Amino acid sequence: MRKIALITGATSGIGRATAIALADAGYNLILTGRRADRLEELKALVGITYKADALALCFDIRRQEEVENAINGLPAAWRNIDVLVNNAGLAVGLNPIQEGETDDWERMIDTNIKGLLYMSRAVAPIMCERGKGHIVNLCSTAGQRQCVLRHKACRRRHKQRHAHRHAEIWHQGDQHLPWCGRDRILDCAFQRR
Q1: 5 phi and psi, to 5 degrees?
Q2: Residue 48 β-bridge partners
């Protein structure tokens, strides 16, 4: 029986590449994004090329109600999510901080932080109930270096990375397993079991 991976932002870039890599590793996929045509194209590709089953869910992770409806509405055959890849994200607004557009900041925060939290909050109870699962949070490395034009994005991403490094803890029975780094999590998630 194939494991199930849910990938946010699967319509392009790293999300699409992750979906293809996981299909190649033997996973069935729940593909999410805002562009239905691209989701369906990717669903067909992984089905034909890798013989992976895929479920395409078109919704906006910035909208908590849409996230909850999508996860709560999963068919029974798709509820046993083994890996959640929180990939969806964006960077907008190249203006210096004094000219920055607050709408751009809100959109980035709603997508990159709140969307990640909404997805994790919706999927984690399923994993906890089953006693297993991995949540992989991808974020930009831009916050690790000086960014003159993107001060707000850099600060946010640094906080995001710092929070994941220190706060992600898995509970397995009475044993607490601290987050062990993105590379190790990705290695574990991509292994066939």
Answers
A1: -120, 135
A2: none
